[in-house]
Write a structure and sequence with these properties.
Elements: E1 2-6, H1 11-22, E2 28-33, E3 52-56, H2 66-72, E4 77-80, H3 86-89, H4 94-113, E5 120-125, H5 142-161, E6 167-173, E7 176-178, H6 187-194, E8 201-203, H7 204-217, E9 224-225, H8 226-236
Parallel strand pairs: 1-2, 1-4, 2-3, 4-5, 5-6, 6-9, 7-8
Amino acid sequence: MKLIVTGATGLVGSEVIRLALRNPAVTSVIAIARKPVLAPVDISPESQTSKLESVVLESWTSPYPESVMRHIEDADACIWALAVTPSQSKDMDFADVTTICYDYTINGLTNMAAHASKPFRFIYTSGVTVERDQEKTLPFLSEYRLMRGRVENTILDFAKQHHDKGVEVTVAKPGGIESPGREAISAPFTTMLETFGHTPTVHLSELAAAMIDQCLHGITKDPLWGEDLVEIGQRALSPEDYLR
């Protein structure tokens, strides 16, 4: 499988790359970013770093240039892990947050789907608090959560409109993400996440492995809630695969 990864330098994207390089079923990893992407430093001896291709993209809202498109050609899947987090958004102009979260994503899917293989599976990394119902009144981070919900709605509509061209989409909606070396998720935050009715936390490796698995074996449902990600990720991982 030829896999595209965005957000490759972030928490989720870097773990997707680490696990993809370990997985023999993934033959090529195309990391698209604003700057060159290097293989993770904690790579295992059995990983094939030669599978990683770093592709620099300067304009994320324009048609992708030929220098980028030739790497995307015949890709089988994309894991889109690029977004502005809620905490980051507080210090930014919301128009810029929307451009990165919405415009980058829709433009990326449109460019990729036009030149990818069939089927082309697109996994969007979102969160449990993101709301698709645009009429809903939300008690906190309303503008942000509804905007991210519009992203989900738009990419799902795109897949419906391009079903005959083999475009498949699902959204991963974890709650808190646990990772070695990262500050533990607080009890109050976990309690808040539990109010959404899904497994409140997922290990970073399980999240990444679950999304890779959906790319490899086919999308099973939408959305993928925390409990789905844990179940698929645990099934896909061996103990030595986990980030430690």
